[in-house]
Amino acid sequence: MTHSAERNRVGVIGGGLGGLAAACVLAARGYAVTVFEKSAWLGGKAAVLEGAGFRFDMGPTILTVPSVLRRIFAEADRRLEDYLDLIRLDPQWRCFFTDGTSLDLVENVDAMAGALDAYAPASAAGYRRFHALSERLHRISDRHFFWKPIGSIRDMIDWRTGFSAQLMGDVLAMRMGRSVASTVRKFVPDPRVAQMLDHFTQYVGSCPESSPAVLCGIAHMQTTEGVWYPRGGTRAVPDALVTLGEELGVEFRTETGIKRVLTWGGASRVCGVETESGEVIDLAAVVSNADSARTHRELLQDAAPAAAKRFENRRGYEPACSGVVLYLGLNRSYDHLLHHGFVFSKDPHEEFDFIYKRGEPAPDPTCYLASTARTEPETAPPGGDALYVLVHAPYLRPHHDWERMLPAYRNVIINKLKTTGQMPDIESRIVYESALTPQDIHDRYRVLNGAIYGLASHGKWNGAFKPSNRSPDVRGLYLAGGAAHPGPGMPMVLMSGWIAADALDRDKIAPKGSEHPTPPTQKPQPVPV
Ligand SMILES: Cc1cc2nc3c(=O)[nH]c(=O)nc-3n(C[C@H](O)[C@H](O)[C@H](O)COP(=O)(O)OP(=O)(O)OC[C@H]3O[C@@H](n4cnc5c(N)ncnc54)[C@H](O)[C@@H]3O)c2cc1C
Asked: In this structure, are 434 and 467 located in the same domain?
């Protein structure tokens, strides 16, 4: 066992987007930071897959709310535009329905309402009213929920001033006790338009029928800030953060899994980490970007069992949904697709019932498509397309054997693309194929039961709340990532990293600078998988 005394350093466990954001913000504020990542690449789920001349983003493909990234770069007085080339996509999604029709979601609310006038007239005025509610919910989230280490509704209240009239109004407007699905349908009677609007909750891997109405605010976030494609793929986001981190002196240690978080003072305070190879590193504080439940169950269980128990007793931790991704290298492109598309199920209630209640893959699933070659032709050989197909699936249950289940489910997905997706010849056009299953997601990213999006947002009253970024159980432990506040999806995990870093900074728990400066290591290259 080796021992490194780096008492002034802050350690970040995990180099996903949340961990990278936390590391950059901490370094920008003057802390010495080391990121420990078990994999050979940085960026976690924002990984890349290359084969036979095709390039796919393996995980996230839809980038929204770029102002969060901008704020992280601004911490270091940098401009995001100098690190990342973002391309705005409008229309944002093309939606295909089982009745053979399609509908584009466009950014401009008047243009969208105009399109609905022709497509589903009874829903046009309702869409405007839904959008007004969405704006109000977004503003409420901005005021009380975002950019702060919130763990429950209690943390939203400033106890010195108590309930202000504005807070009371905001809490009432949150429509607590109502779901996304019921709120959407109150405004929009057309089942196809409602199905489209339901799908904002798929960004957080949760069932619209069980998720709190406040998540309707996501629609306004998307219409005001747009949908973006980073040139070079979503992979360019972690690359940009790693470049920034290197410039700020962050040390990146890839292929370094953390086995344990170490504590002292009767397990009340973090004092370091132990790597899987037995190296003990003294640290002033730790940000864990690993799944929050697994952090407590696996990394803290030995050193601070009472703290791990308190975390466990606070609430239930239900994993968000998982997914199956097909990466299809095609020798043709399809003119009827846009960059982003949804090929919808016939019956969303039945689909969500399978995924979220029965815990089985939906027999008639919704497929989310990214056809990147139309925006960046270099992602496929000339004339072809790198088609990414994501189908949400239940989080892993003990009886799920995806090696056995994948071949049949792959055919279900291909058939859906042939029919509702209007690509009858797709199977014969595949010249390269790879897949990612819930088991692969579980093993690659060390998540909870293969969850793509951390913890589910289920619960009409408190479903939006996740574990706070400042651990109430162990001093010096901070949480960032999809299983911490404010939740999953690229903008939210980036924000979680900022909040964790900001809370650490406010707590003044670590001295700035390092008495034992370590030169930054070479930039690790993403590995092809
Ligand atoms: C298929 C798919 C599609 C998606 N689509 C979208 C989308 O279109 N838009 C969107 O916004 N979001 C999307 N998401 C969600 C988004 O990717 C995630 O919310 C986000 O990337 C998660 O970031 P994170 O910070 O939580 O960390 P993760 O990406 O989960 O990274 C955590 C890192 O911690 C490391 N780690 C874990 N334990 C340890 C340990 N003990 N020691 C060292 N390292 C450890 C892991 O190896 C991993 O690299 C998608 C995800 C997937 C998988």
From this structure: no
